[in-house]
Write a structure and sequence with these properties.
- The protein has 372 residues and is an alpha/beta fold.
- The protein has 2 domains: 58-167; 174-368, no CATH class.
- It has 13 helices and 6 strands.
- Strands 1, 2, 3, 4, 5 and 6 form a 6-stranded mixed β-sheet that branches.
- Helix 3 (71-78) links the parallel strand 1 and strand 2 (82-85).
- Helix 6 (174-204) packs antiparallel against helix 8 (218-248), helix 6 crosses helix 12 and helix 8 packs across helix 9.
- It is elongated and about 95 Å long.
- The relative contact order is 0.10.
Length: 372
């Protein structure tokens, strides 16, 4: 009686098949590709654009009418520790001084002489207590540059440095920068996730279809979902503002007036985010796609909108991109209202960009919104 040999089982073939199936599963899931490759590349590009970190740099604004032909000014400009900056108007200059973003300002007044490079020059330095830690070292550097000039080409007594004028202002605390960024961060993610998953769940579970069997208008469904989310977020914003003010000494220059203005700005931002969340819930094929869409929209803004650090660390071309982001406008408006004591009329640029984003988002939503 003949015996039939059983076919041999190849473990190697099985291993290759399982490996191939694993790769197919990975590449079939776009979330894995985005979080493993695309986001790390974005983060590398953003963080590599930070300042070079070559030691302390003193930001100095030279006031109009200063003598920029004197040898002392040329030496000052060539010093690697000094960054000379300019402002388009005096208001922005004062805001930078109030926040300690500038070490100070210089006014160089030239004496009368035929040779402009060797004529005497009077150096006046102005700053505020907000720049306290950098004032002393810069004044030492200023005197060092003067001594360098005397040892080189400048005649004795050609440079006189006046006693610095330091104006007393409220100290710009870290919380004055951090809290507005955290407000924006909180409402950004919680509103997007809340609206997108809520509306997606109502549609997929057939709840919206059952609503359609009643006389309720569709717009009322959206208003009901949106008003509950907006009310909750406004309450959380109010709690964070009051906690920051009473516990962490967060600045509210105009008290309750500042609170009301911040809350009113928050309403506009929430309306914008609600529209974005509805768009994501409408174009998502599965609930697993929603976090991907939200992160694609929110994470770049979180990094480029001054949420955790100032966008001034970026090169100029990247700062211009930051200026069109809605979260950047919200963060800037809250900081202007809270610390600088400005009002709605002073935040016209921020309001205009947010309003434009809102109009564009709802125009897109009117074409993409899915009820079934």
């Amino acid at each position: 009686m003949s015996t039939q040999s059983s076919p041999t089982y190849s473990q190697w073939t099985a291993l290759l098949a399982m490996t191939k199936a694993g790769f197919r599963a990975i590449f079939a899931n776009p979330i894995a590709i985005v979080f493993s490759v695309i986001f790390p590349i974005v983060f590398v590009l953003i963080f590599s654009a930070f300042g070079s970190g070559n030691g302390t740099t003193y930001k100095i604004a030279v006031l109009p009418g200063s003598d920029t032909t004197h040898t002392f000014f040329q030496m000052l400009r060539q010093n690697s520790a000094v960054e000379l900056v300019s402002f388009s108007d005096s208001t922005k200059l004062q805001q930078a001084l109030l926040k300690g973003k500038l070490t100070g300002t210089l006014l160089l007044t030239r004496g009368v002489a035929a040779d402009t490079t060797s004529a005497s020059v009077r150096v006046q330095f102005f700053s505020t207590t907000a720049s306290g830690p950098t004032i002393g070292p810069f004044l030492n550097l200023l005197d060092y540059i003067r001594l360098q000039g005397l040892a080189a080409t400048m005649p004795q007594g050609s440079v006189s440095i006046d006693r610095p004028v330091i104006r007393e202002v409220r100290k710009y605390l870290p919380i004055d920068f951090v809290l507005p960024g955290q407000l924006g961060f909180s409402i950004l993610f919680s509103t997007l996730f809340g609206i997108a998953f809520t509306f997606y769940g109502l549609r997929e579970q057939g709840v919206l279809k059952r609503f359609f069997a009643t006389p309720i208008h569709r717009i009322n469904i959206l208003i009901g979902i949106g008003s509950s989310r907006i009310s909750f977020q406004l309450l959380s914003v109010l709690v964070l503002l009051l906690f920051g003010h009473w516990v962490l000494d967060f600045t509210l220059q105009n008290g309750w007036v500042s609170v009301v203005q911040i809350v009113s700005f928050t309403v506009l931002m929430l309306l914008l985010l609600m529209g974005v969340g509805l768009i994501f819930s409408s174009i998502a094929k599965t609930d697993a796609t929603i976090p991907l869409l939200i992160n694609l929209f929110a994470l770049p803004q979180m990094l480029l909108s001054g949420t955790f650090f100032s966008v001034e660390v970026f090169p100029l071309w990247l700062q211009r991109i930051c200026e069109i982001l809605p979260l950047k406008q919200f963060n800037d408006a809250v900081r202007k209202i809270s610390f600088e004591g400005l009002g709605w009329l002073d935040c016209g640029k921020e309001f205009g960009i947010l309003l434009l984003w809102t109009v564009l988002v709802y125009a897109l939503l009117s074409r993409l919104l899915r009820w079934e």
